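Worked example 2:
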Amino acid sequence: MDRFSLTCKSERDMDKLAYIFSYYISDIVEHVLCFGGDILNITGNVLLALWRVEQNQLSDIITLVAKCSLEIQEKFGIYHTREGQDLQLKIGLSAGQISQVIFGDERQQYLLVTGRDVDDVQLAQRLAQANEIVLSWNCWMLCEQYMFEVEVMREDEAVKLRDMRIIDPFDFNEHFDKCLDYLPHYRTSAETLRTALELDLHSELDQTLRKHVMKNLLKKIDEGQPVEYVSEFRTVTLVLVSLEFCKTAWMLHLCHLIQEAALYISTVIEKGRGQLSRIFMLEKRCMFLCVFGLPGDKKPDECAHALENSFSIFSFCWENLAETKLVSISITNGPVFCGVVGAVARHEYTVIGPKVSLAARMITAYPGLVSCDEVTYLRSMLPAYNFKKLPEKTMKNISNPGNIYEYLGHRRCIMFGKRHLARKRNKNHPLLDREKELEAFQVAQQKCLHQKKGQAVLYEGGKGYGKSQLLAEINFLAQKEGHRVLPLMLKEADSKQCFYAIQTLMAIFFEIDTCPAYYRQAYLQRQLHGIMEEQLHCLFNDLLFVKFPLSFKVSHMDDVARQKKVKACFIKVLQEAVRETPLIFLIDEAQYMDAASWEFLKTVLSSMPIIMVMTLTPVFTLCGWAQHFLQSPQAILMPISKLATTSLLRMACWELGVVSIPQELQIYLHRCVGNPLYCEVLCQDLLCKDILLFHVLQKEEEENSKWENLSAIAMKSTMYSISPANSEEGQELYVCTVKDDMNLDTVLLPPFLKEIAVSQLDQLSPEEQLLVKCAAIIGHSFHIDLLQHLLPGWDKNKLLQVLRALVDIHVLCWSEKSQEPPNESILVPSSVNITDQTKEKKTKLDGGSASLLTLQEELSLPQTEVLEFGVPLLREAAWELWPKEQQIALHLECACFLQDLACRCGSCHGGDFVPFHRFAVCSTKSSKGTSRFCTYRDTGSVLTQVITDKLQLPSPQDSFQFQMKPSRTQEAFSSECCRTEQEFLDQVKRKLAQTSPETDLLTTKPCHCKDILELVLSPLTQHCLVIGETSCAFYYLLEAAAASLDLSDSYMVCFNMGHITLAKKLARKALRLLKRNFPWTWFGVLFQTFLEKFWHSCSPSQPPNNPSENKKKLAVLQQRVHCLSLLWQLYNLEATASSCRFACLAALMQKHSAEELANEAQVVSTYVDLSQFSQTMGNKEKWLHYEQMAIQKSSLCWFSREGLLATAQLVQALAYTKLCLGHLDFSIKLGFQAREICRYLKKPTLENLVLSVLFRSAFLKKKFGLCVHVLESQWALISQGYDVLGLACFYSACLDLLLYGKGLLCRPFSECLHFFQIYEHSCVLISQSNVMLGVHSSLAMWFAQESQWDLFEHYFSKACQLVKSTNASLFGAHGFVRFLECHVLILQKMPEGIFMHIPLELRSQTLEYFKEFFSRCVTCPVYHQWVSELKASVMRCEKREFMSLTNSIRPFDTCFTRIWIKGDFLEEDNS
């Protein structure tokens, strides 16, 4: 086992090791217990078993044990692992008398088994080779030798057992029954093998046994924590103490020595939160295994404590324990498995890992020393002069142990400290977010200079908050202004040396800290000349390491007088120096300053104008003089705050050497919680693990129409970018992305940060630690009911009590969403009927727990439902503490809990987010049964006993019972079939006016699908991935994606990103998967159109008889409708004849698929789509026809959320129609009704579309106040996201308001122009010709108003390139009108000679555009009168008199505000 342990190079390897070892040992333990034996201890890779009998029964028991050993070797002698390392078993047997000795005191006790036969069994085990059994010579003498086939290995030492001779009538079963009489503790009828488990908790024996369990483990047992929850993977510091006694020492005397050593060791290490884990004997050598950093005991400085305690133990044992021949101590630090191994009936808490084996090897390789490995040396942060590097030695099975050091104990520094700070200022990376802190220093600086009084600024902040960086900046600023700066950084060891800080500061002041030792005295003498008497120079001999002759005056001073004189001399020297140059002390980590130095600085502060700047870490308790110093009126304590998120991202860019980082890396850096050091460590860790890719920043990149590049393209819109520090000409700038095969969510924390987080976790109580660890399994945010499910035996009151305690200390916080009491429980399946079969299954799955109905009732809680981690780092560390197998078991528990909740909420009437998803995937299931989420061995744990059934994908049999017959309300409502538009609008008005809670309309319960997405679907996907069920993970990932798109009201990802070609490819591919082909050529379009028109109408499809097949068909049809709707929208963006044919075919196929689907809501939505399509194509007859069809089909759309959405789309379409037809008041009224439904449904995209129509109607009515209100509402919707198209429409409307709104504005022109300059070349806007035609024309008109004719021509030329690619939609017609206004303006200004590059045939070209407008935009009559007047003005330009008149007219006389027409069409509406 040692060899396997030492090959572990990562925590993953150790996880496998612990898992294999635990099950391997458990099999052996169970075998021993079945043969009547007992397990004394499990230490490392050694298991010591005992059969306790009388002397005359030994021969029979040896036979029994030999038979047990042979069976164990046969079954487990060689165990092959997947890692290629074989576990080999060696067994040694001995028989005779042993001694059981108990060491310790009233608090903690330890059992030690000793005696000659214990030494014999250890010798036999060492002599055995792999898969062998060796008997000690005494055991061989006591057994029935005729029954064994043996080989004598060494005379009078040991024999090798080969086999047992089965001699008739020997019957082993009879022999076993005979041996049971010798083993009274062997229980054949009771449920438990260990009688200790049946003891009364308050009995004397129980209290005695509790002393043999470690304190932190005992607390968890008392809390009722399951055994599986105790095990962890964590970094600990191991101390192995070896006491080798003289061979002549008596056993009784040795026991007294061991007792004395055990008491001292346990007392000493307890101060550093270490624990004595095990005591065991190897011949005349006693070993003590101590562990620092066990669960609940982690401290940041545990390595330093372990070293200092080890040296103290070494000194005590060597000086006070007689008969001690050799004392050896080894210290190692590293990750280990700390947990329970063994069988259910007999298990033991132990530590396993390569560092345990290394400690044992170091004891042998470096006897008589306190040795430590390199990791301990580095992490202790102790001065290097306390260590000595040891020569490299060969160690068994260890190829590269690293450097080994001897710890020499804490010694007084025989040298000065160094004049340096922990950080150096980086001129390329300015200090971030520290303006207030620098201001405090500058204020203190001014006070000192003007008031001639000392000033002290003490910056207090946690580790890594940037205190040292701040001092480096102050150091730079002070030296720049000509101040003399004395910098000093202290360490923890410095606090134990009296006057050390002042000693070092004065050495720096005299500048003798850097000069050669032989020149130090002469240099100091010159410095002191004229300031101090020469006979007093010898006062500094010991302090400054010089050798002035001892004067008569000084020799007659006592120590107190000398100290006073030294301080007085120092003050005098400093006073002289301050008169010449301002002096500043910079002391980093001032909490490590000794009390005498604090006292001296307090005197200096009050006696001279000197500035002191220090940093403090708040977790340390300061001495009395430090407290006095802080209370001085001249001292200011300044807390250092966390860095803002933007500053951390900027810092990350600097650390990585890039100017831009992706969004997923931004999310990953949230775990920094404002700590600059954490950010630096995380970035360096990513670089070391080679997770990032670096690219040279390109100005323009071509669109790559590949699905694989889509995510990378999407990331560009969410990249965080900074300006380069040195923007030199020709310098290459870099951006970074995350590698495709890397997932930042699964990246383990760097060891440094994990140690910090684990030490914070261990400061919590045992129940708080358990809660945090279980919550970490669920995720960053979690529901308390799922959390309670993972905490066996916890009731709601206990859970809430512990949660409140964690919230109070900001470990957890209530989610913002849960601050308001929800109207219904979130984690409740939709209110649908579930078959009895499913209920039975759920009852079995929960191991006899409450039924699903009861679960729903219990989940209905007031506002305290959802929490999240306030310290993300703590969550990551807590999750990593779990062993892998336990992680899988807990994630499986979560998946089982959440699987029935993974559906739409009750207000949406349940069902899949991907319509009929379960019916589409059920055919992919194996007929042999569904797969488990996880396969693992049942060890009798609380978790594994509960899960007795298979967790599977949702199946049609477990599906919701869809209502096949309409309810009475629906029947009554459908009888009110809307035949006309007015009837439909009256119905909408009537339903919106209803406020009774009984009606199932807008007063129904709000939608909780967003909560289900965040608390069920997304976590469920992660749980399935962890437990290895990729098929289930993919299923729920699709559900989560569909829910996200549904909630964001966006089903067209590529389309919304502007990748039109890629979107077409994917839509066609999706249709092929749905068994519906879409043609590629114009001939195919003609043929497919013929088939759709004639063949489809002649052969109506018949629904299949099989209900399951019917549901599958519905699932396919639903997706076809979405794909075809997307296709015609894509082709409709291109104003070509070919694209028009493709778009018409897609619309026709969508209509037929929707009618075949026979879903009222879907049919209504389809007719609305077709109506909009016909309007953009300029087909007025079909436009109004499909609108009327949608109205007639809308009767049953009020009884589902999908139906309400279809109704909202229909109302929006009617508002759009009335706008196009010129019924503006009616359009405004309908717009407000549509918006009310959209706000209830939480459909921001549809609401934004409604607001766009509402703005245009109000704008054409000249209700500019309403326009501003609508734009403000629009901004609230789109400003939080990255909807480039939505922002473009918004800024286009702002431009209209700026041009024609009589001074009203929503956004300044500079902001509008800046947006379009940035996103002008975005593929999203390039594909939107209708919108951009209006934008470029409006910008041209603005620059014409400002008489900036060059810019006018620039944007007008861009508009000319777009006009041919627009259609008859509202945006297209609006842009066309703006474009025509530009033409009219040019014709008016041509006589002035302003436009030099405009062709002379512009007038005839303009008339052609007017003709094209009326032929194309026949479905937008709202603009016809306006365009007619524009055309009339052009016609009047032919008259010379009119041309001369227009020379005096302002450029905007042709614009919307002052067009010279008669009539009331454009009069301002002040109503």
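The radius of gyration is 42 Å. The first strand starts at residue 38 and ends at 43.
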